[in-house]
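Technical annex B. To support the medicinal chemistry partners, we prepared a structural model of the target in complex with adenosine-5'-diphosphate, based solely on the information shown next.
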Amino acid sequence: MAKLSILVVDDESGIRSGIKRILQNFVVSFPFMDEDFEYELIEVETGEDAIEVINNQLIDIVLLDNKLPGIEGIEVLEYIKKNKISTSVMMITSYASLDLAVKATKNGAFNFIPKPFTPQELRTAIESITKHLFLKRMTKKMHKEGKQIRFQFLSVLSHELKSPLNAIEGYLRIMQDKQIGDNIGDYETMISRSMERIKGMRNLIIDLLDLTRIESGEKKQNLTQVNLVEIAQLAIDTIEPMAIQKNVKIITNFPEQEIITADINEIEIIFNNLISNGIKYNKNDGELEIIIKRENKELKIIVKDTGIGMSKEETAQLFKEFVRIRNEKTKSITGSGLGLSITQKILKLYKGKIKVESEEDKGSVFTVTIPLN
Ligand code: ADP
């Protein structure tokens, strides 16, 4: 439950206590808000006191009477505007004055409420301000997150591309100076290491491109009949060299075929990410089991490994962009931290889900569920 603070500025104690009664247990919720709002009330009698409160604490909403003993409500409003104080003002006016309404609107009043008002009128007004405040906060948050993601994008790019570039440059320099011999064969290890680093860079760029295309909605789905078993086998073949290197046994539990309507590239991304993670984060001599099955009009892809696993806190973060778990066990494993977030975004296009169960040092089980229709 989120709390909004309301400053009630009125010299009539009857009005103040009335407002308090009406809003005390009032809760606003809209289907699009992830949290309900309740209100905390602060009361003052004069405009001067109102200014003091506003200057000393964050007030979300000001319910402001115009006719006050000292300075008028409209002057408090002018003060708020002049000092760029972030708060939403609802003027309480005892009579309809066009002049006051124009002046108040010019000074940024959010709305008016006539006096006397019914409890329902007050609640509706508060509801409308709350919705407005919520949307304003969300816009700000999205803007901030957008900036943060752009920044992460650049830092991942510069960091993850810089080290392979440096390595390749180093190897090329050694070759240019013929430091270890005149024969191309002398440089075989360096050439294959360079190729490895180039492959890593290419994968990162592919991940980033996939992400931006999905994010911007630019990626057009090309739906055809896709055999999941075939795609899974292809992903296994691609990762096989690493599996052999780590001596990880791959066990498949597939039906003869499993055909769904989907975009083949997207399905490839899902299998590639889950299967390559299952090998990358596995232990030497471990196992990776991949299951494809139908269950209650749903398609399930289960990828089970006997790898390093994760803690509960870590699993909660996994599907966010650029999240990589950094510890001793993952130190030497390269990646962009994008694969799972891309996988999740693709699954959303199919109204599908992905979940993970994991135990540290035991292994992880990733389960993808896609509704069949
Ligand atoms: P990347 O592997 O490129 O870093 P992912 O988005 O695929 O990015 O995964 C995010 C993080 O989740 C990884 O950095 C790793 O720490 C963790 N992770 C993913 N799959 C597994 C797995 N099967 N076992 C343990 N940790 C995993």
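Notes passed to the chemistry partners:
The radius of gyration is 30 Å.
DSSP finds ten helices and twelve strands in the chain.
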